[in-house]
Amino acid sequence: MWLRRREGSWELKHPPQRGARGLYGASTQYMELTSEDDIISRVSEELGVPRPHNIESFGLNEFASFVTRRRRFQLPLVENSNTKVVVDLDEADFGFAVGEVEVLVKTQEEVENALQKVEEICRQLGVYRETPVQGKVSTFLQMNRADHYRQLLEAHVI
């Protein structure tokens, strides 16, 4: 679960079910909450604490801060499909770059087809992998907060 501030707004990324890792082969699946009210409810539930009035009242401490330059491309829609396919190319200010193929869906029933579409597109682009690529936050922690990174590894969070 990642709580972050992006362009001045709060976002919470979390696996689709409590305790799940959201990992499917080389692909990951996350829910993204952007409503502060929804974020407060989910974090309160996860931490097992009463629901505060705002996110800052949780008293959480920032453990990573970096700037990412993103180039985003939308692939043309496939015939007879309402699927939106996005390719993000990210360069973080700490020297890490990563690409991501993303298919956004609204229901759990659409996930399997989305995962297949991501795999198909990655194969067409010649960037298909059997195992996931380490993400920006994990890489930042490994490079800049080794103790924090080690604790997350030991706790099987990453």
TrEMBL record:
It comes from Ranitomeya imitator (mimic poison frog). Signal peptide: none annotated. It holds the Pfam family CYTH. InterPro entries: CYTH-like_dom_sf (IPR033469), CYTH_domain (IPR023577), THTPA (IPR039582). Residues 2-131 form the CYTH domain. This is CYTH domain-containing protein. It comes from the Eukaryota.
